[in-house]
Amino acid sequence: MAIGRETVENLLKLTKPKWRTSITKVEPDRITTRGYPQEDLIGNISFSEMVYLLLKGELPREKEAKMMEAVLVSFCDHGVTPPSTQVARIMASTGAPMNTCVAGGVSSFGKYHAGALERSMRIVQHVVKEGVGSNGPPSSSEELKNSALMMVEHFLEKGKKIPGFGHRFHDKDPRPGKLIKVAKKYGCFGIHTELIVSIEKLLLEMKGIHMNIDGANAGILSDMGFDWKLGTGIFTIGRVPALVSHIHEENSVESSFRKFVEVEDIYYNGLESRNVDTDRNELNISK
Question: Are 115 and 132 in contact (CB under 8 A)?
């Protein structure tokens, strides 16, 4: 029996798809995420469980879900101090729409703001998997402490800050201690978080520096099996609600296009009293 042209084309579409995804399948009147009909997920799992499911492909155990929730809450907000929040509020002041303001805030995430989590996760995952220098992966608490010492000494010798430690506003960030307790309670305190704690002890002795929220979450998320490449993304999931809140507050209680700085507060240190005709003539002569 001959196969019609239309049937052949449909077969080719199935065997040579233009786009592949294992996350969500969309069909007429049906949406399936990671194998679960979305209508079954609605009302049955929490937002943090949905985030975990999307990122890991499986539903979390109850304790993992609680830990994931604590991690996202820990990223919720840091007032108007972060550049991302300031950017979002300045944009809101101009009359830009909500989605544009949120995008502006998220776009300001970078190496020094939001990027520390990812870099810290990358470091601890590398140390646990590969070790430090010529030493292999640590296989005991003593070897882990030695790896921590070698890592701290390396960074200090280079004059570099270790991502996940120190804070520009807090001598001791109030969030990490609670997160560590929660991680121990829910069985999410493993070798990566142990490494972070060992590093903190050394930095406290040497420099009086505590871990910050990124350091604590770098260890915990690594122990939960998250790839370091997801670090900034997970931070973004936790921080976006705060950006929305700040944008709404800016639009609700502040005047439009308000001044964020007075002219008197701007210090100009450039050149004064230049003459365009004189300078142009000199440039033409020099040619």
Answer: no
